[in-house]
Amino acid sequence: MLTISTEFKAKQQELQKFQFQLDWYEERGLKSASELIRFADRAYNAGEIDYIEYISSLKQAIQIKRDHLEITKQYNQCALDLKYLGGSF
């Protein structure tokens, strides 16, 4: 069984992992999603891509945004766990 100190350190490492992932989404991932949507809208309206390609691009962009939200949720949960383990509650 893990001691509280060991569990606290593991949660700190986990929080750093989530922070790294959030940084990527905020620096690159969300911008890519916005660009995908903008490109898909422009190309579809110009008749350069068909409806299936349009929806596929939107689906890809939405998945990136969903993944960002999931990582944000995991980060927040981990931060709460750290507060609990640290006696901040």
Summarize the structure.
The protein has 89 residues and is mainly α. It has helices spanning 4-45, 51-85.
Main attributes?
89 residues, mainly alpha, rod-shaped
Model description:
The chain has 89 residues and is an all-alpha fold. It is built from 2 helices and no strands. The chain has helices at 4-45, 51-85.
DSSP strand count: 0
Helical proportion? Answer: over 70%
Which range does the strand content fall in? under 5%
- Seen as an oligomer or otherwise, the chain set is single chain
What structural class is derived from the secondary structure elements? mainly alpha
First-to-last CA distance: 23 Å
Report the order of strands and helices: HH
Give Rg in angstroms.
19 Å
Poorly predicted ranges (pLDDT <50, ≥5 residues)? none
- Compute the number of helices: 2
